[in-house]
Design a protein that fits this description.
This protein has about 80 residues and is mainly alpha-helical. The protein has four helices and no strands. Helix content is about 65%, strand content about 0%.
């Protein structure tokens, strides 16, 4: 099954792309192909950061209050 060929850019990015294409004299399809090739060839890593204790506790407290009925059923 072929992949879709249309691309929708964010409004702020469209102007930058137009000026880049004009400056470098390449076609939009070439730019998209080069960008995708570079993106998928590089390793994608997720950086884990420790959670803020106060923020975690407040979020957990809200979750327990919101889902109290489900928590009671698990007991």
């Amino acid at each position: 099954m072929p992949l879709p060929k249309s691309v929708r850019l964010e409004p702020g990015l469209e102007g930058k792309v137009k000026s880049y294409l004009k400056k470098n004299k390449i076609k939009f399809s070439q730019l998209v192909s080069m960008a995708i090739a570079k993106f998928i060839s590089e390793p994608q890593t997720i950086e884990l950061k420790p959670a803020d204790t106060k923020e975690f506790l407040s979020t957990a407290e809200r979750a327990f209050k919101t889902h109290k009925d489900a928590m009671d059923r698990l007991k």
